[in-house]
Amino acid sequence: MKLYSFFILIHLILIQQVSHSQNLTGMWLVEKVQVGDEQMTPVSKWFEFHEDGTYESGNGWLQNTIGTWSYDQETQEFSATNKLGIKDEGEPFKIEVSDETMVWSRLEEGSNVKIHLQQIQSIPPSYTDLLPGLWKLTESSLPSEPITSGSLASLKHIFIRWDRIYRATDQDKNSKTGYWHVNGHRPELTLLPHQADTPAESWRIQVSEKELELTGISDSNKDLVKKFARIHEFPK
Questions:
Q1: Span 19-37, pLDDT tens digits
Q2: Which of 26, 69, 65, 67 has its CA nearest to residue 42?
Q3: How far is Cα 140 from Cα 24, in angstroms, rounded to an integer?
Q4: How far, in Å, CA of 58 to CA of 67, rounded?
Q5: This model's pTM is above 0.85
Q6: What are phi and psi of 142, to 5 degrees?
Q7: Which has the higher per-residue pLDDT, 147 or 167?
Q8: Cα dist. 184→17, 49, 80, 135, 161 in Å?
Q9: CB-CB contact of 129 with 60 (8 Å)
Q10: What is the phi/psi pair of residue 178, to 5°?
């Protein structure tokens, strides 16, 4: 009986270890997405899975998905439904889980897809979350090529609003307004002016809570670098 009890105890311990290693609940950040030989990692993509089989996901501070999830312990297959989205026609993901990392893999349209995730405790902001606010120009380096007339190269401060509207003001206090958009996979900001005489421009961005750097990547602002500091009052 003692030997039998010992084996029962070992069996229970192993079950607990397997259950723990396959625990998907909690918050996970997508660190890398591989599609064949390409990387297509979304910006600050996260998932939070709950024990009741529901989940939410989003990008940075923007939640954009709710749904349900399921995991087959025997086959190690994972699937999820998005209540607000398009039905996923792909096969379930095969899952590999450790204490703090997870890998999803499956075949999509002939390409091997692997999604690498890291467990996190809180949602990290994306550069889209850090952009809104008032920014004052602190430094500007001109490119070797002349700037296209009508571009935003002469702006001195820019107010980026949460509702995707911006207002850029130049050294003569003339203002231009428009829409702003951030690429979902790359740190690129595009400004789409309301004014017909001003071209749309894209910039590569680096941003923190206090500093913003824009590097021109359009023909109209190519290689122009503008650095800003966050301020909390409009300049007089």
A1: 433 588 999 999 999 999 8
A2: 65
A3: 47
A4: 12
A5: no
A6: -80, 145
A7: 167
A8: 38, 23, 22, 22, 18
A9: yes
A10: 175, -170
